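#struct-pred

JT: dropping the chains for the assembly here, can someone run the whole complex?
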Amino acid sequence: MPISLKDEAAIAGIGLTEFSKNSGRSELQLAAECIKAACDDAGISPSEIDGLVSYTLDSTDEIEVARAVGANDLTMFSRINYGGGAAVGTIHQATMAIATGQASTVVCWRAMNGRSGKRMGQGVSGDITSSDLVHWSWYTPYGMLIPGSWIAMIANKYMHNYGVTREDLGLVAISQRNYALNNPRAYGYGKPLSMDEYMASKMIAEPLCLYDFCQETDGGCAILITSAERARDLKQKPAMIRGVCQASTRGQEQMTSYYRSELTSLPEMELAAKLVYEQAGLGPHDIDAACLYDAFTSEIIMQLESFGFCKEGEGVELVREGGLDIDGRLPNNTHGGLISEAYIHGMNNIAEGVRLVRGESTGQPDKNVEHVLVSSGVGVPTGALILGKD
Amino acid sequence: MNTEEQRTFEELIYSYVGKQVCPRTAAKDAVNEAMIRHWAEAIGDRNPAYTDPEWAAQSSRGKTIAPPAMMYSWGQEGFPVVAQGRTPDAQSELVEKFNENGFFGTLGTNVKQEYFKEVSPGDTVYMEMVVDNISEQKATARGIGYFFETLATFSDQHGDEIGTQRFRVLKFIPPAEQAAATESADSALEVPTRIASPRGHDNKWWWDACDEGKVLIQRCRDCQTLRHPPRPMCGECQSMQWDSIESALAGEVLSFTELHHPKIPGYQYPLICAVIKLGEGTNLVANVVGCEPEAVHIGMPVQGKVEQVDEKTMLPQFYPA
Ligand SMILES: [Zn+2]
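RK: done, full complex below.
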């Protein structure tokens, strides 16, 4: 009998550093700080951590982190690949470990000097022959070196098919900026964005302009997961893990799945939706708010369809009617998201999911938030998470 | 630098346009025969109009003149600038702003002088200088950078304009491998090429064929399924036996993007990348060229050919069919 992951584990603590363009310290220190903060939030000692999970892109080794924060025996440590596609995947690892008794207290973290250190948007080049570099080299000689160029190819086709305009993308950017206005952690804190500014901003890779892109950020974010039972005895109201999964589909490439029959949908996200809803025993109508991965605005509109909030091609209507806003059908990225809060590779979107369930977001909707959906990177092997109230 | 920071930086540097580098200042020495002689000897210019008073007396001018190209030398700083350094001015501040933001490469690209009036021994040359213009960001052979131009205006003791000099300087981010090397003005200007693909077991054959002008499509020898990009095993029947067919490069634009920013050295802009659905059935990412960017559209029929796009690179390029 397979073990169901539903309600086996809960997020008991979240921890963040400040977000900046130049942290002035090592990624190890950022990791240690946010992990300590997550432990404090949960009301436990770092010595209780016995599992650690991060991204393959994270520069800090688990054992470095463990020594830094004073963890004792580790019985589980793991890494997930594919950039922001790893976000929810780390929670998936932790949940599986807890459900199967492999660990009791797992911290998932991502800490990066994403602006002052290695910048994700710098693209790829190099002489080493790995399957990964061979992959990128089908695009680099033609000039597609940055994530925006890879995503623009899908965005253009999608927009062409369904009559989505640049103004529609602007609505997504502005909706998220409006949330950030009230979030002191956010890049967009107190900095409103108008449609005129959006439309006048620099074109990067058509149809995507500056404001369609996420931030580049220095900072760290940690999520502490333990059993549902134990979480109930800790400091915070638990954010129950109702469902969590990873998903990659046939013909999957990293950012450039251009060889499938259609370029206008996100098959891996559709699989994630199917898996996470099945596991949680929930459907789109049960989801009250979301933190959909938002490296680019176009990805939000496409995911509304992947997760069944509307039919194919109708995501833009939900956006136009204000569905993503605080009083809309699906308040989304209520902290500002990767676009207007910070780019911590999606880990900060999971933290916001927890806040929404706790009722503590700076963009908390008035309605009862019973379930929040969080997704991982778009256009890459990905995953989805549903958090719920206990 | 992200685009928002670039905007802030550009606002800062563009604020220097029009700023005075030095007010109208007299040269330390009046135009004199000794300096003219040194200059003419160093250059190897034997024109008697500069150095032969007797010859000059018989000429239409009736006296020697200073070589017009010396215009800037009259006002140049001498030993003190070496010993004590340059007094800060708008130009040195601007250069500092570039350096602080990583544009620490410097290349004097060209000097353009215009002459309006001759000067002779006894005259005094005055110079004033402003920051005249700064280009938008450019992808140059040396790296990403900006050109800035100073404009020096020369006049004599009567206030008559003698000439002008425009000095154009490139401030650029030196590529990492060049950063350590010394910045010698005569180091070879190697033109960057497009980023080449690493060639390993699974893709070398494709690029080798491309170098010879052919785009191949891998084909499973067992089930005949075509596949691109190449991989060692057939996903349909798991066969590792394969051969290839040559594409006729007739296709249709499935989607495309025009790349605006950042401009990468070695690539030519406007630059359009497209997913092309080839007549054979597989998709290929390549450039669309040979028309205005605005003319490219989804569904556009295209015909490709393999072309040399720079000194080292052969690539399929698609034209409107
Ligand atoms: Zn086969």
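JT: nice. The CA atoms of residues 3 and 119 of chain A lie 39 Å apart. Residues B 220, 222-223, 225, 234, 236-237, 239 surround zinc ion (CB under 6 Å).
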